[in-house]
Design brief:
This protein has about 190 residues and is mainly beta. Helices cover about 15% and strands about 60% of the residues. The protein has two helices and nine strands, in the order αβββββαββββ.
Length: about 190
């Protein structure tokens, strides 16, 4: 199954890069701070969530963008890294002579790795050896972007949630939530 997902990602990535060459829109890169909730990001009894950072790029594709992102979160109980691949459709909300306010919505897939903090779990005693886990699933996002007119950057707020499967967990499927605040740069 993992080979199929990786193969699918490579096919979509290569087709999006070909579309990038045909379409003359600029490449967009982003840097963000991330706050994640749910037991993907932190042990469910702790409930404090995980904080981290993310990087990514928007590649023009058809009437929207392919959003490729990599997020890292860290908490008291675990670290999580995940690769996100979404199709995003932006839309204009408001604009005047100084500011554009845009929204966007998207959906896609995520592949990740959870690294448990051994010291945290060792304190609980009865859990035995600590294991790290792969995860994957589908996610959706919505966002709001503020772009000053005649600039090559914008500020954004993004929320993601989805259904993620973590094999060997007692509850194999979870619905994590992440909120991100970031800065986007348009590269001509």
């Amino acid at each position: 199954m993992k080979k199929f997902i990786v193969s699918l990602l490579l096919v979509i990535l290569s087709s999006s890069l070909a579309a990038q060459e045909e379409k003359k829109d600029p490449l967009i890169v982003n840097v963000e701070g991330v706050y994640g909730l749910g037991n993907i990001h932190d042990h469910d009894q702790n409930g404090s969530g995980g904080i981290g950072f993310g990087i990514g790029a928007w590649l023009p594709f058809k009437e929207g963008f392919i959003d490729l992102g990599l997020d890292f979160t860290s908490s008291a109980s675990r670290n999580n890294g995940e690769l996100q691949f979404l199709f995003v459709k932006p839309f204009r909300l408001l604009s005047d002579s100084t500011m554009e306010i845009n929204g966007y919505a998207g959906a896609g897939i995520v592949l990740g790795r959870i690294f448990n903090n051994e010291d945290y779990f060792r304190d609980n005693g009865f859990l035995g050896p600590v294991e790290d886990y792969n995860d994957g699933g589908v996610i959706g996002n919505i966002g709001l972007e503020l772009k000053p007119v005649n600039t090559n950057y914008s500020f954004y707020l993004d929320a993601k949630t989805g259904i993620v499967s973590v094999p060997k967990w007692a509850d194999n499927v979870t619905t994590p939530f992440k909120i991100s605040l970031g800065l986007r740069f348009l590269l001509d």
